[in-house]
Design brief:
Strand order of the largest sheet: 6-7-8-3-9-10
CATH superfamily of the largest domain: P-loop containing nucleotide triphosphate hydrolases
CATH topology of the largest domain: Rossmann fold
Strand content: 15-25%
Mean pLDDT: 86
Shape: globular
Number of strands: 10
Low-confidence stretches: 9-18
Number of domains: 2
CATH architecture of the largest domain: 3-Layer(aba) Sandwich
Distance between the termini: 47 Å
CATH class of the largest domain: Alpha Beta
Radius of gyration: 19 Å
Number of helices: 9
Helix content: 25-40%
């Protein structure tokens, strides 16, 4: 039986249906003459998995960049657990409990797999700053704790045997899982993943689905941008469909899969 690392949130009682951990209302983002995101609203309840889908160029990654703080909206509102996110930079959102992975893998390829995970613990050190210069007992305890949790996370994604290897030496699918472990090291309350199944084989996709299910079982809220419809149908509670930067449809996986507007957006009329 696979155990979820202790640094991840514990399962909580199911919230009322109206509760939302993450809210966005009327988001707009323009790049020159292109309106990449146009009047997008969403609400994600605690413990929910929301999938965002749509054809290439639909604005999905731009929306994720707005939610994570890499971009600021031209208009609209966003909040996380009641805290206004508009104007708040990405690193401050990370301290609130938002973490993400990227469509294009962004690892420190020249350092070890373990050190890639350790780099994400910067928001969770519980020692005064001066101890980074003068390594006292508290520093050693904190370092030991981070190393232990990093190894648990690597075990969670199946990379414990690769801990000492350079990150750049991993196979593509392993690098994807390392990005997931690094995002989890921040102990997020809400995890955003951008096309996590891209480039994975069938066995790797199944392992990814299993990991996401385990995270949700422990109470984590997840927003996933994905093209792999099999994965979306397996893991999503709700699906938001975008097309040309706009809201096309939101519903359950079965509602979305059968809707004529979604079929037309993906396959053409």
């Amino acid at each position: 039986m696979t155990l979820v690392p202790t640094c991840l949130p514990q399962a909580e009682a199911q919230p009322a249906p109206s509760a939302a951990l993450l809210r966005a209302q009327g988001l707009y983002k323009r790049f020159g003459g292109i309106e990449a995101v146009r009047d997008i609203s969403l609400a994600v309840a605690p413990g929910q998995v929301l999938a965002i889908i749509g054809p290439n160029g639909a604005g999905k990654s731009t929306l994720l960049n707005l939610l994570s703080g890499l971009y600021q909206p031209d208009a609209g509102e966003m909040s996380f657990d009641g805290v206004n996110l508009v104007g708040l930079p990405a690193h401050k959102r990370a301290r609130l409990g938002l973490a993400r992975t990227f469509q294009k893998i962004r690892l420190f390829r020249g350092v070890s797999v373990r050190d890639n995970v350790l780099a994400a613990f910067h928001t969770r050190h519980d020692i005064p700053g001066w101890q980074f210069l003068v390594h006292a007992a508290a520093f050693e305890r904190d370092r030991a704790r981070c190393h232990e949790e990093a190894l648990r996370l690597l075990s969670f994604v199946g990379l414990e045997q690769r801990a000492a290897l350079p990150a750049g030496s991993l196979a593509y699918g392993e690098q994807r899982m390392l990005e997931l472990a690094r995002a989890l090291a921040a102990s997020p309350r809400l995890l955003m993943v951008d096309e996590p199944a891209a480039g994975l084989n069938a066995a790797e996709v199944e392992r990814l689905i299993e990991r996401i299910r385990l995270l949700q079982q422990r109470g984590m809220t997840i927003v996933v941008v994905e093209h792999n419809m099999d994965l979306v149908m397996e893991i999503a509670d709700r699906v938001l469909v975008m097309d040309y930067g706009q809201h096309l449809l939101e519903g359950t996986p079965s509602e979305v899969q059968a809707h004529p507007a979604v079929i037309a957006a993906y396959l053409g009329t």
